[in-house]
């Protein structure tokens, strides 16, 4: 097993709540900065899961250990 696969399994085990955010081909821009600022304001390290990129944009998976913080993140950045 490669180191990355082991790291991915550990991330999935330690961060049970995941959210996905989609972007257009141009990217998230300042919205991505705001997502990282959210983590900083709440004193947590940003943890991203497996993401994918294609011609339609990107899908980023955010991982949270605390479901209430995940809900707050979703409320702030959904839509």
Share of β-strand residues: 15-25%
Helix content: 40-55%
Which parts are unreliable, with pLDDT below 50 for 5 consecutive residues or more? none
Shape: globular
Overall number of structural domains? 1
Tally the beta strands: 3
Secondary-structure class: alpha+beta
Radius of gyration over all CA atoms, rounded: 13 Å
Helices and strands, in order, run as HEHEEH
The end-to-end distance, rounded to whole angstroms, is: 38 Å
Biggest beta sheet summary: 3 strands, antiparallel
Average residue-wise pLDDT: 79
Taking strands numbered 1, 2, ... along the chain, how are they ordered across the largest sheet?
1-3-2
> How many alpha or pi helices?
3
Name the descriptors:
3-stranded antiparallel beta sheet, alpha+beta, 79 residues
Write the layout of secondary structure elements.
Layout (H helix, E strand, L loop, with lengths): L2 H12 L2 E7 L6 H12 L10 E3 L2 E8 L2 H11 L2
Antiparallel strand pairs: 1-3, 2-3
Describe the structure in your own words.
The chain is α+β, with helices and mostly antiparallel strands. The protein has one domain (3-77). 44% of the residues lie in helices and 23% in strands. It is built from 3 helices and 3 strands. The protein has a 3-stranded antiparallel sheet. A hairpin with a 2-residue loop joins strand 2 and strand 3. The protein is globular and about 30 Å long. The mean pLDDT is 79.
